[in-house]
Specification:
single chain; alpha/beta; Rossmann fold; two-stranded antiparallel sheet; 8 helices; 16% strand; binds flavin mononucleotide
């Protein structure tokens, strides 16, 4: 099988995952994560999970941002697992697809970008979310060796001049998001060898960790990949999901230890 392609040959034969392929198991929500074939032996269906849970006494808040149309996808499953793992810390979920965030950069965005103020109301709302957050986790499927257009549009419109950074010819670049630690959880169709051989992992890291996270002055948290995401769920998938979720949740705890 040529693992450098996506979808891999096996997944192409199998066709896209559908809710029916989940043997009637219920699709989870952020209030109740349900189960996913990738869980294998871990039945998450009884796990209680709230979108926001403020039961610790520290001031940390993790904002988990996802961009995927299918609540039954591996991406949403991984995001739900992460939220569950982070409990009882405070977590807020920004499900950009469900919330119908508009990724299109408008003339109002452009004006705000140039003036560094008067952001459109939907952008200001995201600023509010990020200002409350100590940690940001982007959970997304890799599309064309990058992030989905919906998430890229969120970055374009929200990480904007005047709010995320300031730039002037006289004083140069002044990053403004030093209070935030940013983590990445990437769900990839191809295998790790393809990412290594072609430099895709390095390109993604340069583009997102350096080009975005460093640029706005955010601290770098964990970056974790789940590869071969379109293979039939297996012990390897379950282990990969568990490993990636653990890496990010441990980094969140390390970044914002309890007061
Ligand atoms: C438009 C599109 C582009 C994709 N591009 C890539 C890619 O560049 N590299 C890769 O590893 N996987 C790629 N894939 C595979 C997705 O990463 C894979 O379908 C996803 O991780 C599966 O998880 P999901 O069930 O959450 O969708 C692509 C998939 C789509 C739909």
């Amino acid at each position: 099988m040529n693992r450098e392609t996506f979808p891999p040959a096996a997944a192409a034969r199998r066709g896209p995952r559908t809710p029916a392929a989940h043997d009637g198991r219920r699709v989870g929500s952020y209030d109740d994560p349900g189960s996913h074939p990738a869980d294998e032996s871990t039945d998450m269906s009884t796990t209680d999970m709230s979108t926001t849970d403020m039961s610790t006494d520290d001031n940390s808040l993790t904002l988990v941002v996802t961009a995927h149309p299918d609540p039954d996808s591996l991406t949403h499953h991984v995001a739900r697992r992460l939220v569950s793992e982070l409990r009882p810390r405070a977590v807020e979920v920004a499900d950009l697809h469900r919330e119908q965030f508009d990724p299109r950069f408008t003339t109002a965005d452009r004006r705000a970008y140039h003036e560094g103020r008067d952001y459109p109301s939907d952008v200001a709302r995201e600023h509010g979310r990020l200002e409350r957050a100590t940690d940001l986790v982007l959970v997304f499927p890799v599309y064309w060796w990058s992030m989905p257009a919906l998430l890229k549009g969120w970055i374009d419109r929200v990480f904007v001049n005047g709010w995320a950074f300031e730039y002037s010819a006289a004083s140069g670049l002044r990053p403004k998001l030093q209070g935030l630690t940013t983590h990445l959880l990437l769900i990839a169709g191809a295998d790790s060898g393809a990412y290594e051989r072609h430099g895709y992992e390095g390109a993604l890291r340069t583009q997102i960790e350096h080009g975005i996270v460093d640029y706005v002055g955010s601290r770098r948290g964990a970056t974790a990949f789940i590869h071969e995401s379109e293979q039939s769920p297996s012990t390897a998938t379950a282990a990969s999901v568990a490993r990636a979720v653990r890496a990010v949740s441990e980094a969140v705890r390390a970044a914002s230890p309890p007061a």
